[in-house]
Design goal:
Layout lengths: L9 H4 L10 E3 L15 E4 L2 H9 L5 E3 L8 H4 L7 E9 L4 H14 L6 E7 L8 H6 L6 H9 L1 E6 L3 E2 L2 E2 L6 H9 L2 E5 L15 E3 L2 H12 L2 H18 L2 H16 L6 H9 L8 H13 L2 H7 L14 H11 L3 H14 L4 H12 L3
Parallel strand pairs: 1-2, 2-3, 4-5, 4-6, 6-9, 9-10
Antiparallel strand pairs: 7-8
């Protein structure tokens, strides 16, 4: 599993003396067009633009995947006091024009107030000219545990997205959304159409559509401590409950197992077992294989299986509500599909294909 395929590309992978059964990569950034990823069996990403570019660079297939947060945070990194009112940690680059501007504007507007702004910036070679006021306030880049502690000691942490050739890429989640909510700060993030597939806006995180709304909400939550803490605490519970590293590891292994089992599920046999037996009397392991076929197999398998599964418990079988949601979509019922996906993810937050589908449905014109 390679987290830097921009460096470890085909030129490196073809030198392996023995090729693994699976070569998997992670792509969540811009990649040079001269890279070749034909040696990658799967490229993981949470961003449609990166998934498309991965296929163009030769990856055999893409799977939806997103980052997580360590459950042990409160025991190891949690700050006991605040020393930042507003914070941002990340890069200052030429592909973050919108984000650079709001960071600078907020700094100028808050310069003569009582509020403390802390920017932990790393300047990249492609960055535009650094405004002197940004250089003055910059505390230097921080990562890992030091970053967790700094975010935890901040009342509000800002988030905004990359600008690419076709406009702002405001698709959730990015890593900062997980880091901020998991650290217990109030996440004030640029609005994205699919954010509700991960966090409930206004209850677990707060959003802004433009700079004026960002400034207004920053001032509001700095002056309303209870409201800020309520959202920050709800966001932290959501992150650590739904996106902890144990569940994200399960999601990763689910992806691996799905790939290794492609073409190996005896679909006809499973359907015959279901058609000749009471579904509730079938051994649990076989039930799960049947539901897996309904959820991830061809449409005709799903249509053959679901009529026999009405009395099975979706809280025991990962993918049952997901398969039903796909069937509702096939029948043109988007609203029911979304409710089924939400229920699936309440039971099984590690079901990434269900999260991906819900995310896509939120991005549809409402």
């Amino acid at each position: 599993y390679v987290t830097i395929p921009q460096i470890i590309d085909d030129r490196v992978l073809t030198l392996l003396p023995k090729r693994p059964r699976l070569v998997i990569g992670w792509n969540a950034s811009l990649t040079a067009h001269d890279k070749s990823w034909t040696e990658y069996d799967i490229m993981l990403s949470s961003h449609p633009f990166c998934m498309d570019s991965s296929i163009k660079l030769g990856a055999k297939r893409c799977e939806y995947f997103y980052p997580g947060f360590p459950e042990e945070f409160n025991d190891n990194y949690n700050s006991k006091s605040y020393y930042n009112d507003v914070a941002f940690s990340g890069y200052w680059t030429g592909t973050h024009v919108y984000r650079n501007n709001i960071l600078r504007n907020l700094l100028l507007d808050f310069k003569h107030t009582k509020y403390n702004l802390a920017y932990y910036l790393s300047f990249m070679p492609d960055a535009p000219e650094y405004p002197p006021e940004i250089l003055e306030i910059n505390r230097g880049s921080i990562w890992g545990k030091a970053m967790f502690r700094a975010l935890s000691a901040s009342k509000i942490v800002l988030n905004a997205y990359t600008d690419l050739d076709n406009g702002p890429q405001n698709i959730s989640p990015n890593m900062r959304q997980m880091e901020t909510t998991g650290s217990g700060a109030l996440l004030l993030t640029q609005a994205s159409p699919n954010l509700a597939a991960f966090f409930e806006p206004g209850k677990e995180v707060e959003t802004f559509a433009d700079y004026n709304e960002l400034k207004e909400k920053t001032l509001f939550y700095l002056n309303h401590e209870k409201e800020r803490q309520d959202i920050a605490q709800a966001g932290q519970r959501a992150c650590i409950t739904r996106y902890n590293l144990r569940l994200r590891a399960e999601a990763f292994m689910n992806c691996v197992h799905r790939h290794l089992r492609i073409g190996a599920i005896p679909g006809d046999s499973l359907v015959r077992i279901l058609q000749t037996s009471d579904a509730q009397t079938i051994p649990f392991e076989i039930q799960q294989k049947i539901i897996e076929l309904a959820a991830y197999g061809p449409d005709d398998a799903r249509e053959s299986i679901l009529p026999y599964c009405r009395h099975l418990a979706p809280e025991r079988l990962m993918g049952l509500n997901f398969a039903s949601a796909k069937q509702s979509l096939a029948e043109g019922d988007t609203a029911t599909a979304m409710e089924l996906l939400k229920e699936e993810l309440e039971f099984w937050p590690q079901n990434d294909p269900a999260r991906e589908l819900l995310s896509k449905l939120y991005c549809l014109p409402q």
